[in-house]
Amino acid sequence: EAQYNLGMMYMYNGKGVDVNYKKAMAWHLKAAEQNFFESQTMVANFLMEGKGGVRRDRKKALVWYARAVEGGCKFAMYAFGKEYDEGIPGLLRADPKKASQLWAKAAEMGLADAQVALSNNYRNGRGVPQSDAKAVKWVRKAAEQGHPLGAHNLSLLYAQGRGVPKSDTESFRWTKVAAEAGHPPAMCNCG
Known about the structure:
The protein is mainly α. The chain has helices at residues 2-11, 21-33, 37-49, 58-70, 74-86, 96-108, 112-124, 132-144, 148-160, 168-180, 184-190.
């Protein structure tokens, strides 16, 4: 865990160190090789993005995501789900069903980003049967955690009466939550 913490410090200008992505990657790699799942996810993110001078290698990134998912890391489930949802030409075929399965696991573990993504797939019938009720269920969980996009999306569902009774009062309530959390479209709607 100390190696993970050092990696995070180098990523976000922690106490006494300047941002240095190469050092961050080195510390995360040490932790990842010892099966620290959060670091496996960070290594995958570095490789996927080619961040801070780290050579982009999407194929290796997918391997690290898979290892972290096997270990039960909800952050890896969300990130790997994004890759499955969009696909990577020549590497990973888009598979919204697999994305939704990964997001469902992370959503059950309370990860708000995954709850919003899963909600979107239910709302649009992407990889799962279309269900406004399930879309509301998952986006409400994210909104109740203060997730800006989750609150905004819930406000839209109330405005449209999708999966919930139409309510301008509830729509405004959730728009205000999203605006207070810094979501730009919601901030515009609140004036």
